[in-house]
User: What shape does this take?
Amino acid sequence: MDIRKTAVVAAAGATTFFAMSKVFSTKEKKKESKSAPTFPVVDLENFLKDPKSAKEECRLIAEMLHKTGLLIVRDPRVSEEENDRFINNMEAYYGLETAEKMENVRKQYHYQIGATPEGIEQARNHCARAKGLSEDDRPVTVCPPGKDPKWRYFWRIGERPQQTEFKQLNVSNVVPKKIPDFTERMDRWGNLMMNTVRTVSQMAAEGFGLERDTFTKLMDKGPHLLAPTGSDLSKYNKKDTAFASYHYDLNFLTIHGRSRFPGLFVWTRENKRTPVSMPKGCLLLQAGKQFEWLTGGFVLAGFHEVVVADSTIKAKERAEKEGRSTWRVSSTLFAHIASDNTLEPIGKFSEESNAKNYPATKAGQQVSDELAAIKLA
Assistant: This one.
């Protein structure tokens, strides 16, 4: 999951407990546009109408997951207006007073439901990996990573198992008092995202030569989390501030709509850092650690970071002139394998050369271990 991050220098007047240390890149400024690859947009419409007519789309999804760990799709069931409504809802929430937001914090559940304040989430230490990259492809995340200067709100989506070994991963939602229709709006966006994830999972399975329901069966009644972040650009707006440090996601697939403020950078399988620009009306998906586990490393959990780039600053300035919110909201959902299901390379992936590196492990245990590693358990 995108639960990890970084320390930064706060803007003038902001708190400064996010300690800075050595930065991965020695450059004062990281260029955003160096030979950025173009990611194809996969339209899901053919598959939704007739799965047998979408073999090429299924093949492309499998290929992109293998090569980049990233997909950009267009789902006719999800409009840009739906994304805008959801972001409006979260801008209203993050704009509340801090004391009001703190009422929604549930530390006793490792912050896996309700609000997570800034200064809690922290990335795993990937300094050694980052230092092995070419200078142009190193993250701008500080090393070692500090605390994350962004808020998050976790909201459960979908049915939960009646019996499970991992009850803390399957607790009830927290509803803020001050935001009208919050439950309806969260459920609406979360269910739209899960529909897209299920469709993409079916297409990926077919593209890999597996049964269509291979992944969706494992996801049934999983602890899926709608997890929108809120980053206050009026407070944290220094170039190269990282809101989400260099990390991979721990879940199966992560999906989000288009943010109003750019700043997402991803690494391909060849460890090339590139900005992601998403067309309007599209959705972005990234493979997480559970996907990597099930494919024995054929699909890798993609590394990425979210930072204040030049384009982020320009978007903030436009928002200020237009009187709009300067909270950077992500419309993120983390789709999971069900907690009591076992993660291990499946089908032909059990023959991958690295399959032995992915021993049979309950998904709930894998999540708990990852949360402990990033200091959320």
